[in-house]
Design a protein that fits this description.
Strands 1, 2, 3, 4, 5, 6, 7, 8, 9 and 10 form a ten-stranded mixed beta sheet that branches. The protein has one helix spanning about 1-20, and strands at about 25-30, 40-50, 50-60, 60-75, 75-80, 85-90, 95, 100-110, 115-125, 130-140. The termini are far apart. By secondary structure, it is mostly beta strands. Helices cover about 10% and strands about 50% of the residues. The protein has a single domain, classed as Sandwich (Immunoglobulin-like), CATH 2.60.40. A hairpin with a 2-residue loop joins β4 (about 60-75) and β5.
């Protein structure tokens, strides 16, 4: 009887590992802030093996976390929340980067300093409607680490 339980446990563990491997997050980082700054961005490469959508994110360092897009509208850079989430085509990496798709960390509870690790939970909804969470710890990089992410107050 113990052998059956062990085999059942092993099968369940395999299923859990496979489910958690459906979405991977690589090269995650958060832009550092200055004393009075209340918002910053999380950047990374997200790949969903089966496809889905990034529908939510949360972090204990921020009061509000939203999925955003920055794009040019004529000569003006505009930022908007993606209320319906960000599509993740099956097997294709979607890059969250300054000046493009990103996760906004707003209403920051304290400044984020170079080298700190920021815990973030990403919620992915699969094509089947099931939700999966991916926990990451993104290192904070200095303000000048990449191209500007201006217009934090724009909507």
């Amino acid at each position: 009887m113990k052998t059956i339980h062990w085999m059942t446990a092993a099968a369940l563990l395999s299923t859990t590992i496979a489910a958690s491997a459906q979405t991977t997050v690589a090269d995650a980082w958060v832009r550092g802030t200055v004393a009075q700054q209340k918002a910053t961005g999380l950047f990374a490469k997200i790949t969903s093996a089966t496809g889905g959508k990034l529908v939510a994110a949360s972090s204990p360092v921020a009061g509000v976390v939203e999925i955003h897009e920055m794009r040019m509208d004529g000569d003006t850079m505009k930022m908007r929340q993606l209320a319906q989430g960000l599509d993740l085509p099956a097997g294709q990496a979607v890059e969250l980067k300054p000046g493009g798709y990103h996760v906004m960390l707003m209403d920051l509870k304290q400044p984020l300093k170079n080298g700190e690790l920021v815990p973030v939970t990403l919620t992915i909804e699969g094509r089947d409607g099931k939700k999966q969470t991916v926990e990451i710890k993104a290192p904070v990089k200095p303000l000048g680490a990449a191209a500007g992410h201006g217009g934090h107050g724009m909507k």
